[in-house]
């Protein structure tokens, strides 16, 4: 998870650099760049990107927001998050049976993660609600998924998720979830929302949707919910 957070930071930093380069050239007459006025700086500050995370990715997005959020993000969207304060991920053993350090330090020699071959059933496991995807679309989806991801991604060092604390999220946040998502705990969703550290927050429950609410039949409802939150201050 910490590595994922740093990857997100690299992407956000890249977006910021692109924005700054484009914005520094604002009003350039070809000779030299003009200094930003206070109004222009305000515009630049208001165009920070939003960050959306789905499922375990929502935990990563929450970790990023806790660490870097207010200075780099305009909004946070936690979609189908599996956050549950009752789940405490155990640390991996520091040493293997031979006494070799395998976790917890820069000199650790981590064993390679076991490879789990992706399957048709595994590629479709998020479509749990009958009718959310037709047979033809399911076959097409799985064929593309298997072509792109022949091996399932292996998570490591899951104990790093234990730092997730809604009270440390100080950016405007949308919590969005399918009403029939089998992977979420509703008391955990309510606690997450209530404990968020910013008073600009919304929760949206998508009816007749499971974990993959952003795909196929429910995608328009999902998109409208997210866009409506992001544009809430623009009179959308």
UniProtKB/TrEMBL annotation:
UniProt organism field: Skeletonema marinoi
Highest taxon, organism lineage: Eukaryota
CC annotations in GO: membrane
Descriptive protein name: Serine aminopeptidase S33 domain-containing protein
Pfam families: Hydrolase_4
PANTHER family associated with the record: HYDROLASE, PUTATIVE (AFU_ORTHOLOGUE AFUA_2G14860)-RELATED, MONOACYLGLYCEROL LIPASE
Matching InterPro entries: AB_hydrolase_fold, AB_hydrolase_sf, Hydrolase_4
Domain Serine aminopeptidase S33: 48-213
């Amino acid at each position: 998870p910490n590595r994922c957070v740093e990857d997100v930071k690299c992407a956000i930093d890249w977006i910021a650099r692109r924005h700054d380069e484009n914005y520094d050239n604002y009003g350039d007459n070809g000779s030299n760049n003009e200094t930003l006025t206070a109004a222009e700086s305000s515009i630049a500050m208001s165009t920070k990107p939003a960050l959306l995370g789905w499922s375990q990715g929502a935990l990563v997005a929450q970790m990023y927001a806790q660490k870097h959020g207010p200075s780099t993000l305009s909004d946070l969207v936690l979609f189908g998050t599996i956050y549950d304060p009752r789940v405490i991920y155990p640390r991996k053993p520091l040493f293997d049976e031979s006494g070799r350090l395998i976790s917890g330090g820069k000199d650790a020699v981590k064993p390679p993660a076991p490879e789990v071959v992706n399957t048709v059933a595994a590629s479709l496991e998020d479509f749990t609600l009958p009718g959310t995807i037709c047979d033809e679309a399911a076959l097409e989806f799985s064929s593309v998924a298997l072509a792109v991801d022949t091996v399932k991604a292996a998570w490591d060092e899951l104990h790093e998720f234990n730092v997730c604390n809604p009270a440390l999220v100080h950016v405007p946040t949308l919590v969005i979830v399918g009403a029939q998502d089998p992977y979420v705990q509703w008391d955990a969703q309510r606690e997450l929302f209530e404990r968020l550290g910013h008073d600009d927050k919304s929760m949206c429950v998508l009816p007749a949707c499971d974990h993959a609410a952003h795909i196929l039949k429910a995608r328009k409802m999902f998109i409208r919910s997210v866009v409506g939150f992001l544009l809430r201050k623009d009179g959308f």
